[in-house]
Amino acid sequence: MRHNKKRGMKLGTDASHTKAMKKSLICALLANDRIKTLDQRAKAIRPDVDKVITWAKKGDVASRRLAIAKVGDKEVVREVFDRAAQGQWDDRNGGYTRIMKLGPRKGDGAEVVIIELVTEPVAKKPVSKVTKVEETPKAEPVVEEAVVEEAPAEEPAAEAEETPAE
After folding, report:
1. pLDDT digits (tens, 9 = 90+) for 64-102
2. Per-residue confidence (pLDDT) for residue 78, from 0 to 100
3. Is residue 76 part of a domain?
4. What Rg, from alpha-carbon coordinates, does the chain have?
5. Which of 63, 117, 115, 109 is CA-nearest to residue 89?
6. pTM of the predicted model, to two decimals?
7. Cβ contact 37:82 at 8 Å
8. Residue 10 falls within a domain, yes or no?
9. Is 35 strand, coil or helix?
10. Furthest-apart CA pair in the chain: how many Å?
11. Does 145 fall in a domain?
12. Which is more confident, 22 or 5?
């Protein structure tokens, strides 16, 4: 049974506080392109940021309304949709955020990270053509015969015999 098992990370607070905190972090990340936060919070907002950017790439009115509901700030959503319309993420099919670890926090040892939006173009992997190798017919195993080498006979004498006498 799944009594009291809610989806997602609770992040140490009640549901309404978690929702408000995630909305605030998403808005700050999209407005500033980089924020410093805790590891679990960064991992919790990553899918939501990716959804907002995917909606921005789609660019229709329904996507804009969904993004406004997720972010909570019309101006930030407008900026993100404008950047997507300019083609900032056209070559990417996901993975719009990067998390870099900074180390433990001094007071309580919580893992501190920087989460940022990725703006570099995707490096294409070189595509190598795979050619089908033809199968070679199976040959019978070759049995090596013992070759006995004979010492060469006197070659100059053989040449002398072949030349006709005059």
Report:
1. 999 999 999 999 999 999 999 999 999 889 899 999 999
2. 97
3. yes
4. 36
5. 117
6. 0.69
7. no
8. no
9. strand
10. 123
11. no
12. 22
Start-to-end C-alpha separation, the chain: 118
Question: What pLDDT does residue 164 have?
Answer: 61
**Which structural domain, as residue segments, surrounds residue 32?**
15-117
How long is the chain?
A: 166
Q: Which two tokens stand for residue 20?
A: 């408000």
Angle of the 74-85 helix axis to the 39-58 helix axis, nearest 10: 60
Structure-block tokens of residue 166: 């005059």
**One-letter amino acid for residue 121 of the chain:** P
Number of helical (H) and strand (E) elements in the chain, helices listed first: 5, 3
> Does residue 55 lie within any of the structural domains?
yes
What does the alpha-carbon distance between residue 39 and residue 31 come to, in Å, rounded to a whole number?
20
111, 101 contact by CB (below 8 A): yes
Q: Is residue 100 a contact partner of residue 116, using CB atoms and an 8 Å limit?
A: yes
HEC states along 91-160?
Answer: CCCCCCEEEEEEEECCCCCCEEEEEEECCCCCCCCCCCCCCCCCCCCCCCCCCCCCCCCCCCCCHHHHHH
Structure tokens at 12: 């140490």
What CATH number does residue 85 fall under?
A: 3.90.1030.10
Q: Judge contact between 98 and 27, C-beta under 8 A.
A: no
**Domain count for the chain:** 1
Closest CA to 70 of 107, 105, 45, 92: 45
